[in-house]
Every structure is written in C-alpha cells, then in structure tokens.
Amino acid sequence: MYLNDLISLVRNVIEDNSSTDTDVHTYENSDIFTITESNVISVSEVRQNSSALDSGDWSYDSSNNKITISASCSAGDSIEIDYSYYPDYSDTEIVGQLKSAIMYLSIFGYKTFEEIDGYIYPDPTSEEKNLIAAIAGILIKPDNIEYSLPDFRVKVPQSLPTRDIIKQTIAMFKTKGHGIFFVT
Q1: Domain boundaries, the chain
Q2: CA atoms 143, 144, 146, 149: torsion sign
Q3: Which of 114, 108, 152 is nearest to 13 (CA)?
C-alpha cells in the first residue's frame, strides 16, 4: 500500500479540510506572483483584469508556491488567482507522522510494518489503516480530546502524555479492533 493513500484519512482525523481562496495582486514589473497560503492543492483559474487567462498563459510552480504569467501585462493590471489549499499541514508533514505511526505499532507490540520507498509492507487491513491514521492524528494534534474514524473513536484526557495515548490506543485496538476507546 502506498503511504500517501493514508493522507486523506489523517486529514479527516485532524480536520484539516480543503479550503478555497482568491489572491489579488497588482502587476507592477514582475510576471511572478506568490500565492498567500502555503499548502496549495491546485490553482483553478488566473484572471487578468477580471478576464480568465488560458492555461497556457500562466504556470504554477508548487516548489516555490508561485504563479508565472506569460501573457502580456501592463502596470496596474489586476491579477486574481483562484486556488484550493489545506489550511494547516502539508502532505510532507503528514507523511512524516504516518512513518512515525507505523514505528509506534512495532514499538508497542502490535505488528511490524515497514515503509520502503513510500510503500507499507505488509499491506495493512482497512482497520489497520484507520489505526495508523489515528496515531498520526494523535502525533499531529496531541491536544485533541477525541479522534474519530469510521470504525472506531478514541477519547482521551488532555493531561495524558502523547506516547501514553498512543500506547493505550494500540493496546485497546489489539483487544477490541473497533468501537469507542476511552484512554485513561
């Protein structure tokens, strides 16, 4: 299973849902414009003075979060950029926590998974995918008091250290596999 396939599950757990926005810039002398938000999913449209530009008249570089316009612009032109983004976490940050979640499953004696070149071996079951996503969610947002997925929900006290929350969640998952887990 490809590790990136779990990103959307983690986003659901931590409630990092996609949003849309429009940036408005005024052309001065550079054809390059920086998008305000950092975790851009896609750029849907670029307009010059309220007229949509053809996709061949602009390009988006995700490595630096910039739009380059190749259409002719004049000083004072309004450039509007419509895009979608994740407000809190990049895919790279989530993948890092997914790798840690897989490690915790081994540390706390559930099962040993390996991550090799972005793939998880052996393939986790649907329930194990949810467990991995929940642990990644706990690592990303340890102050949450509840983590929900389709087949189980974890409720935790705020005073418990993250490592203990993870350990108890794995232990309860080993015995129950689904349901509501109350970590104490």
Answers
A1: 3-15+90-182, 19-86
A2: negative
A3: 152
- pTM comes to 0.83
Tens of each residue's pLDDT in the chain, 184 residues: 899 999 999 999 999 999 999 999 999 999 999 999 999 999 999 999 999 999 999 999 999 999 999 999 999 999 999 999 999 999 999 999 999 999 999 999 999 999 999 999 999 998 899 899 999 999 998 887 777 777 777 777 777 888 988 998 888 888 776 555 556 5
Q: 3-class SS at 7?
A: helix
Three-state secondary structure string covering 148-174: ECCCEEEECCCCCCHHHHHHHHHHHHH
Cα-based distances in Å from 3 to 8, 20, 28, 52, 80: 11, 26, 43, 37, 35
Query: Residue 178: CB partners within 8 Å, gap ≥ 6?
Result: 127, 151, 152
